[in-house]
Amino acid sequence: MTTSPTTPATASPTESPLLSAEGLRVTFPGRHGAVPSRAVDGVNLDIRPGEIVALVGESGCGKTTLARALLGLVPPTSGSVRFAGRPLDYSARALKAYRRRVQLVLQDPSGSLNPRHTVYEAVAEGLRIHGYGGDEQTAVAGALSRAGLRPPERFFLRYPHELSGGQRQRVVIAGALVLDPELIVADEPVASLDASVRGEILALLLRLRTELGLSALVVTHDLGLAWNIADRVAVMYLGRIVEAGDVEQVLTAPRHPYTQALLSVLPEAPGAPVVLSGEPPDPSRIPTGCRFHPRCQILSGGEAERAGVADACRTREPDVLGGSDVGQVACHWARTVVAP
User: Fold this and answer.
1) CA 67, CA 109: separation in Å to the nearest integer?
2) Domain identity same for 157 and 65
3) Whether residue 148 is found in the same domain as residue 291
4) Contact indicator for 177, 123 with CB cutoff of 8 Å
5) Do 132 and 212 touch, CB atoms closer than 8 A?
6) How many other CB atoms are found less than 10 A from the CB of residue 97?
7) For the purposes of burial, counting CB atoms within 10 Å of the CB of 279, is it exposed (0-12), middle (13-18) or buried (19 or more)?
8) Tens digit of pLDDT for each residue in 41-96?
9) Residue 223, CB half-sphere, CA atoms under 13 Å: how many?
10) d(Cα 314, Cα 334) in Å, to the nearest integer?
11) Residues 189 and 90 placed together within one structural domain of the fold
12) Would the pLDDT of 340 be above 50?
């Protein structure tokens, strides 16, 4: 993390959320009568207009399922999603209108683009699905230009295999921008790109936020990416957000042992990396007490015992965090020992 974090362009702590989740749970039935899998297990999260929020955590922690639930692609088992103050309506017509305002950008541009479609057809597809009544060619050219593909007409008849990885990702972003959304959900938007191209795509997302007032939820396992692009960060572990707050606050003074462990393996992190024991638990077998306690270096190292919270770590589940921008942590030890 070598550069300073971004400054929110339009988001205000007092502004009403554009998108919010409250008590969100997504449970998948187990096979052959097995215990259901609690992929998202009680999440509150707010995203305000013009704000970029990074959702970070290990693979399998529930990040993508949460993102899909926010997009209406996965109906919640319980809880609610609200957009612009209204509960999400899961009827086909309402979801179609909603997805014009909230667009998804996937991590693999090669898999997102039909190899038999030209760039023009790929970007125009959303316009045709939603019955756009304006000048299609002008809209496609404008979206490609905003995504950094200029002059746009030069790309109209090209196919995905004729483009570089960075150019393909820009086409995917243009396909989202062509509908003038208010929010984009970017799932690992630079994971498949070369290091030299990642910075260009991140700079593009920041510029779009500044110029268009776009909000964004960026799903990533990369804390360095979160530092460089986000206003706020939410750290997810085993279906639940365990720490959230201003990106500089969370990533320079992490309070949750899991966040501390994630940060410790970055190349520029001081001290020795924290090696967590075992793999993340199965979401169908969430431990009692704090869900992180079987892998927690604070508990295994005796610090929780000295703070008098070891029993609580093993037996009492921390409260679900609120969705606001206030710094929060779901950890008995951190709430006892580490000042907010």
Assistant:
1) 18
2) yes
3) no
4) no
5) no
6) 11
7) exposed
8) 999 999 999 999 999 999 889 999 999 999 999 999 999 999 999 999 999 999 99
9) 24
10) 15
11) yes
12) no
Count of alpha carbons within 13 Å of 70, Cβ hemisphere only?
33
Structure tokens, 12: 């205000």
- Tell me how far apart the alpha carbons of residues 71 and 306 are, in angstroms, rounded to a whole number: 44
Q: Give the domain-ending residue among 192, 209, 236.
A: 236
Q: 206 in helix, strand or coil?
A: helix
Q: Is residue 187 within 8 Å of residue 219, measured between CB atoms?
A: yes
Paired tokens of 333: 């030890």
Domain range enclosing 64: 19-28+36-236
Tell whether the model's pLDDT for residue 7 goes beyond 80.
no
Q: Rg of the chain's alpha carbons, rounded to an integer? A: 21
Nearest of 167, 130, 131 to residue 152 by alpha carbon: 167
Q: Which amino acid is at 127?
A: L
Phi then psi dihedrals of residue 51, to 5 deg = -105, 145
- Residue 112: its pLDDT value, please? 83
Written as one letter, the residue type at 309 is V
Q: How confident is the model at residue 338 (pLDDT cuts 50, 70, 90)?
A: low
Q: Could you say which of 184, 212, 236 is where a domain stops?
A: 236
- Band of pLDDT at residue 5, cut at 50, 70 and 90: very low
Smallest Cα–Cα separation from 170: which of 144, 193, 139, 202? 144
Q: Write the CB contacts of 80 (distance below 8 Å, at least 6 apart in sequence).
A: 21, 22, 23, 24, 87, 88
Contact assessment for residue 171 and residue 147, using Cβ atoms and an 8 Å cutoff: yes
Q: To which residue do tokens 């039935």 refer?
A: 29
Q: How far is CA 174 from CA 151, 250, 256, in A?
A: 14, 32, 37
Q: Which residue, 214, 208, 251, is CA-closest to 232?
A: 251
Phi, psi of 100 (to 5 degrees): -75, -30
Task: Give the domain CATH number at 92.
Answer: 3.40.50.300
Answer for the pair 242, 45: CB distance below 8 angstroms, yes or no. no
Contact 52, 213 (CB under 8 A): no
